[in-house]
Structures are given as structure tokens and as C-alpha cells.
Write a structure and sequence with these properties.
The protein folds into two domains: 150 residues, Electron Transport, Fmn-binding Protein, Chain A (Pnp Oxidase, Chain A, Roll); 59 residues, Rubrerythrin, domain 2 (Single Sheet). The chain has a seven-stranded antiparallel beta sheet. The chain is mainly beta and 236 residues long. It is built from four helices and twelve strands, in the order ββββαβαββββααβββ. Bound molecules: fe (iii) ion (FE). Fe (iii) ion binds next to loops.
């Protein structure tokens, strides 16, 4: 038995959530998968958020956060919108319907099963992430649907994970027999999330075989990371 098989870590289970917070009159939300309940009475929940994220800064400033529990109707463009854009560059709620909790933290109205607001009681810096531990202050069931699991996101929606996520996995390239020919094909980069389309790797999860030139990818193909269309890519 191998004792350094990192795929053992990939078998951990998670959900998929929006984490919303505010600072003054600004609001923001991002995607997180590391959310878990710690105690039942009172209800305390832990949330890990990357230290570079704007949401992390907002949580530290306001002391509150809202967890939106996504359901399976949340698609790749929706998740990509919150997960692969930065609130420093845009207002993520400009075109997304939302409501706010009593503390003013935003939660999307659609694609969510429930919303839980936490008041942060303590936090610990853990390398790249901050682990926030909060006490439940408000909770509501928003809609029907089955809560999205991280496994569903990756295996059914073929979603990817950004390097800023705690559960990031380095992509393993799949090289084809036409490697020599493929070497002359150009790589393209997504202008929104930075995903690089490499013809040698293709996008097998998205139905694009290794060895496919970017020009030959069907027009309805979308960025496997953030969900934007092909015209948002630039030649590298
Ligand atoms: Fe992208």
C-alpha cells in the first residue's frame, strides 16, 4: 500500500457555498467548500476563507458572514461568477438577485437552499487561509432542491477548483499521440479567470479531446473554470 497517495485526501466530502460579507456599504461574496458545524448548542460553524480574498477582509471588518447553501441548480456560470471573479474588480451582485441578513451580509436569492448568518467569535490564521468560527445568529430556508456537494460540482458539473481553494488539485495533463503536431498549436488564456487552454491537454471533461486546436473547439464550449464563452479567451 502506498503511504503517499494524495488522492486519499480527495475522498474528503464537502458542500458548496457562497460566503457573503460586507464592509460599510460594500458587499461581496465568494465560493467556499470548507464549511462545517462544530457544536450544536449553541450552533457554531467553521468557515475557511483564503486570506487574499476580499471577503476575508470584509468578514474581519464586519465580524459577520452569511453562508448560502447552494443547490444543484447552481450551474458553472453562476458558481464561476462568484468563485473566479474578485469583488475588487466588480460588484458581483449587480446582476444577481439577493437579500441581506440582519447584519447586512448578502446571500443570492436563487440557486440556494438555505442561508445561515454567523457572528464571528474567533479566528485562526492557518497558512493561506483564515479559519473563522462563528455563532449562528440567523437562519432561513430559502427554496427547494438538493444541496450541492463538492463531489457533484466536480463529477457532474465537471467544475474545477482555483489554486486559492483549500481543496485545490493540480491538473494532470493527458498527452495525445499527436504530441508533435500539438506542440505547434497555440495556447489560449481565459481573460476572466486565467485558465489556460492547452491543446495538448484539451478539456476532456468539457468534451474537447487532447490534440484539439482552440479554433476547432465548438462555439458553445465554455471555460471549464469560470464558465465564460470562447470569445473571452486570448491567444497566449
Ligand atoms: Fe475562465
Amino acid at each position: 500500500m502506498k503511504t503517499d497517495d494524495i488522492t486519499a485526501v480527495f475522498t474528503l466530502s464537502y458542500g458548496l457555498y457562497t460566503i457573503g460579507s460586507k464592509s460599510g456599504d460594500r458587499i461581496n461574496a465568494q465560493i467556499a467548500n470548507a464549511v462545517f458545524q462544530i457544536t450544536a448548542d449553541p450552533v457554531r460553524i467553521a468557515v475557511a476563507v483564503n486570506r487574499e480574498e476580499l471577503t476575508n477582509q470584509f468578514i474581519k471588518e464586519s465580524g459577520y458572514l452569511a453562508i448560502g447553501i447552494l443547490n444543484q441548480s447552481a450551474d458553472i456560470p453562476f458558481i464561476g461568477h462568484f468563485g473566479f471573479n474578485s469583488g475588487r474588480d466588480m460588484n458581483k451582485f449587480e446582476k444577481v438577485e439577493y437579500f441581506t441578513t440582519s447584519s447586512g451580509c448578502p446571500c443570492p436569492k436563487h440557486n440556494t437552499v438555505a442561508c445561515i448568518e454567523l457572528e464571528v467569535e474567533s479566528s485562526t490564521e492557518v497558512g493561506t487561509h483564515t479559519l473563522f468560527i462563528g455563532k449562528l445568529t440567523e437562519c432561513s430556508v430559502i427554496g427547494q432542491g438538493i444541496p450541492m456537494t463538492y463531489a457533484y460540482y466536480r463529477e457532474v458539473l465537471c467544475g474545477k477548483t482555483p489554486p486559492t481553494a483549500p481543496s485545490y488539485r493540480a491538473q494532470e495533463p493527458v498527452l495525445s499521440d499527436q504530441q508533435k503536431e500539438v506542440k505547434t498549436m497555440k495556447k489560449y488564456v481565459c481573460s476572466v479567470c486565467g485558465y489556460e487552454y492547452d491543446p495538448a491537454v484539451g478539456d476532456p471533461d468539457g468534451g474537447v479531446a487532447p490534440g484539439t486546436a482552440f479554433e476547432d473547439i465548438p462555439e458553445d464550449w465554455v471555460c471549464p473554470v469560470c464558465g465564460v464563452s470562447k470569445d473571452q479567451f486570448n491567444e497566449q
